[in-house]
Amino acid sequence: MKDRLLLLGYAIAVIAATSVHNPWWLAAGLLLVAVLAGRQAPTIGWRALRAVLFFSLVISIGYAAGALFGQAVSLDYLILVNIRVYLLIFLTFTLAAKIDILRALSFSRNLTYLVTLVLSQIIPFRRLFEDLRLAAESRRLRRLRLRERYLQSAAAAVHLFDRAEHDAREIALAMRSRGFFQPDATDNAPGD
Amino acid sequence: MHIPDGFLSPQTYLPAYALAAGGWVYAARELRRRVDETLLPRLAVLTALAFVLMSVMLPLPGGTSVHASGIGILAVIFGPWLTFAVVSLVLLLQALVLGAGGVTVLPVNALAMGLGGSVAACLGYRLLAPRWERAGLFAAGWLAAVVPAAMVAVVLGLQPAIAHRSDGQPLFFPFGLSVTLPAVLVPHVILGLGEGLLTLLVVSFLRRR
After folding, report:
1. Do B73 and B46 meet the contact criterion of CB atoms below 8 Å apart?
2. Do B38 and A169 touch (CB under 8 A)?
3. Is the C-alpha dihedral spanning A133, A136, A139, A142 positive or negative?
4. Smallest CA–CA separation between A176 and chain B, in Å?
5. Distance CA B24, CA B89 (A)
6. Residues of B with CB below 8 A from A63's CB?
7. In this complex, do A81 and B174 lie within 8 Å of one another by their Cβ atoms?
8. Confidence class for position A146, pLDDT limits 50, 70, 90
9. Which among B87, B157, B38 is positioned nearest to A165, based on CA atoms?
């Protein structure tokens, strides 16, 4: 329940942060989120800063450069948009640190199962992808030509597809053997 | 190509959520109708695969590379609705688990990349493949990169007109269509060539066996 409330609170906070156009209110919101983040606030704040820095700088510099071409440029806008972007990213990182995503999505059984399966599959896929990359790297005696690099990327993708097909069949069999696909199985699923 | 959080107005992302929700419901019905009991595991594994496919490097001349999207490949093999569902799930997980992207931009990114990209890829492929199979595959990958970029550029470029103060000062993304269209489209028209080539190679390899 706590996680679902957190998710709901997050959704409301996001709509509020994009509906308020006063930088002071947004700054107050940022302070509030930092307090809610507790001891993790400096870590989350630094991660959020790194995440927004490049894009925000590009937009801000591009906007400010408009002054060189005689366009009206407002410092208020720069402050407003940068505080808002930082607040939203800080808020999202705080949520990601505090929430149990599976519990938060438990309003839908199928979505919970789906996300559980996805999360359990991402790690082996990432590991396999990294293994393929390292294997190719270790067998390389010279810098590959563009054509060879494309063939290598395509071969890695094909292997990942093969693995995906195989894993999907295995998981379906495992779920069937545990009675998941019987009509009443999901209705009486544990944890509901 | 993701739009970061904070640059879209609620007047944009709230209707986009309504539109995307309709798409998600339709996609779920369509998939249930077409796919058997393996739907759930298949969707999960393909989502994980798409998550990782987005880490596959698209080689660029000069030894550099960028991330592929894999949308053209998924669209040609599995069709637009499964691709839309998978890409939406990837974006949801990126937003909530990794804190990447964001929830305000999720529906626009999902509609652009998952639906616009995959529908364009399928149409391009179906149009060309009967006569020129390889050209169809290449076009699918190229369109899957370029069409979402165009959609994102339009949505971003409309922000100053949609949300601004009475004096005309923008409240969200500051640049209009005259800036966003060339800035977003030109790089993607070129990157799309790589995406097209990767789609052509991967799908050809998969079908050859």
Report:
1. no
2. yes
3. negative
4. 9
5. 10
6. 174-175
7. yes
8. confident
9. B38
Q: Where on the phi/psi map is residue B102: left (φ > 0), alpha (ψ -120 to 50), or beta?
A: left
Determine the Cα angle at B86 with ends B81 and B91, to 5°: 125
The distance from CA B201 to its chain's CA centroid, rounded to whole angstroms, is 20
Question: Is B37 close to A51, i.e. CB distance below 8 A?
Answer: no
Give phi and psi for A41, each to the nearest 5. Answer: -55, -45
Catalogue all structural domains in chain B, each as residue range(s) with its CATH number: 10-208 (1.10.1760.20)
Residues of B whose CB is below 8 A from A52:
4
Chain B hits for A47, Cβ within 8 Å: 99
- AA letter at A116: T
A150/B172 touch (CB, cutoff 8 Å), yes or no? no
Q: Residue A84: which of B6, B175, B201 has the nearest Cβ?
A: B6
User: Closest Cα partner for B99 from A90, A124, A37, A40?
Assistant: A90
Question: Inter-chain contact B48–A146, Cβ cutoff 8 Å?
Answer: no
- What's the rounded Cα separation, in Å, for the pair A63 and A74? 9
Evaluated on CA atoms B11, A22, B160, A62, the torsion sign reads: negative
Report the alpha-carbon distance of residue A154 to residue A150 in Å, rounded. 6
- Distance in angstroms (rounded) separating the CA atoms of residues B5 and A60: 15
Both structure tokens of A26: 């947004």
Q: Which residues of A touch B2 (CB under 8 A)?
A: none
| DSSP code, position B99 | -
Question: CA-to-CA distance for B198 and B204, rounded, in angstroms?
Answer: 10
What was the ipTM of the complex prediction? 0.82
Residue type, B39: L
pLDDT, mean of each 10-residue run, chain B (209 residues): 80 96 90 74 83 67 62 90 89 78 88 94 95 94 94 93 89 90 89 90 85
The token pair at A148 is 């060879």
Q: How many CA within 13 A on the CB side of residue A130?
A: 6
Instruction: Answer yes or no: is pLDDT of A82 > 60.
Output: yes
Interface test with A, best of B29, B36, B40, B197 (most A CBs within 10 A): B40
Give contacts of B159 with chain A, Cβ < 8 Å: none
Q: At what angle do helices A23-37 and A41-65 cross, to 10 degrees?
A: 150
Q: What would you report as the CA-atom Rg of chain A, rounded to the nearest whole angstrom?
A: 24
